Amino acid sequence: MTSTATAQLRRRIARxxxxxxxxxxxxxxxxxxxxxxxxxxxxxxxxxxxxxxxxPSTWGSVxxxxxxxxxxxxxxVSLGLSTGGPTPPHGAGxxxxxxxxxxxxxxxxxxxxxxxxxxxxxxxILPTYAIIFVLTLPLLAQRASRLFLAAAIVVxxxxxxxxxxxxxxxxxxxxxxxxxxxxxxNYPFPLWIAFTLAGLGLARAGIRSRRVQWAxxxxxxxxxxxxxxxxxxxxxxxxxxxxSFLEAWWTSDPHxxxxxxxxxxxxxxxxxxGLCLLLRTGxxxxxxxxxxxxxxxxxxxxxxxxxxxWAVASMTLLGSAHEHAFRDLDxxxxxxxxxxxxxxxxxxxxxxxxxxxxxxxxxxxxxxxxSSGANTQQRQNTLEP
Length: 385
Prior knowledge:
It is a single chain. It is built from 17 helices and no strands. It is an all-alpha fold. It has one domain. It starts with a helix and ends in a 5-residue tail after the last helix. Mean pLDDT is 88; it is low at 370-380.
């Protein structure tokens, strides 16, 4: 390599390092998204049992259900950051922002349909996100207090409705199964929009403020303690057949859509975001968290990469993508290491994640972002899970 090429490489690495560590970046959001990606990998690729808070040996199961809810809350944070942060768009700027979000939502849904076709035995969450982004459009210009109130109302109203709807045998029919795939019903959007609205509220409240960060940590922790402590028994990762409506609703079980899960796991997600923001990960010793933050800077790419690696590895080694057989290969560590190494290399040598960059360019069909001091932040924080 010539001295000129070496100098160009160094400049590129320095520029990309500054992109993830400069003052325009909310590094704590990247850290939280990186944790969510690792939690998702663990939930998909490890054998995890039921969680009991009094038994430390089961604490690894904390990722079950909570990683996806953390993603949903972070999607709201990213949505807020990409549309003005604490200063929501208005007028023509609001119309352009809504159009860009709609275009991204359509592309994310199409990408989700593509991943579904890989026939990997994991519930693809992208269709849920696509629908949620569209449903948040009417509230995009609301202030933080109204968004938090809307999130609370959504939880209280939709949780019992979803528990009731899930009891219908129609979901076991072919039409119900197919519809569930393409709308991401494993993560039912009528309830999950609450987590995204809470994240959007954080962004509108001013996520760089230490007061907001401490409030997110403390309020989120209180909600988590309230939700989990009110649960009538230890969490179970298995859906229990034959439960009464009240038992199915008043529970914190992962993926149950129970009201206590929404309160507890929603609060847990908000607390994690607050803690990551308070750590000031882009300040002193940023290299300590850089590998995880590089994963969090390209969450959509990391998510899709995991599904693709799962499909290719399982079909190559097993001839089938069956969940149990693939987990028996202990794929968590190699896939996690590969994801982190590829994310670090790409973020330093290239920059923005490939899928994030592609969606960003395509969404500009809806017009450029409104001119504001938050433009650097808007470009660097995307809508993807």
